[in-house]
C-alpha cells in the first residue's frame, strides 16, 4: 500500500481537461470570413474548373483555391 498521492491524480486531470475544453468551447467561434454558404448540385459533366468559372468572377483558379 504505497500512497504517493497518485490515486487522486486522474480525477484532477479529468476536471482540468474538462475545464479547458469548456473554456475553448465558449471562446471559439466561426470566423465568418468565408461568406454565406452556397449550395450547388453537381451534374455528371461538371468539373471543378467549370463550376468555378460559372460561379466566381475573375480567375477560376482563385475560386478553386
What can you see in these coordinates?
The protein is mostly helical. The chain is built from three helices and no strands. The mean pLDDT is 82.
List keywords for this structure.
65 residues, mainly alpha, 3 helices, 49% helix
Compact overview of the structure:
With 65 residues, the protein is an all-alpha fold.
- Low-pLDDT windows of residues: none
Order of SSEs: HHH
Cα-atom radius of gyration: 25 Å
How far apart the termini lie comes to 61 Å
The coarse silhouette is elongated
Number of helices: 3
Biggest beta sheet summary? none
The fraction of residues assigned to DSSP E strands is under 5%
Question: What's the count of strands?
Answer: 0
Mean pLDDT: 82
Derived structural class: mainly alpha
Protein topology:
Blueprint: H1 9-27, H2 48-55, H3 60-64
Amino acid at each position: 500500500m504505497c500512497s504517493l498521492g497518485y490515486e487522486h491524480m486522474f480525477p484532477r486531470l479529468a476536471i482540468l481537461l474538462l475545464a479547458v475544453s469548456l473554456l475553448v468551447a465558449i471562446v471559439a467561434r466561426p470566423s465568418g470570413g468565408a461568406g454565406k454558404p452556397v449550395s450547388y448540385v453537381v451534374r455528371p459533366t461538371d468539373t471543378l474548373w467549370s463550376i468555378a468559372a460559372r460561379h466566381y468572377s475573375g480567375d477560376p483558379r482563385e475560386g478553386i483555391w
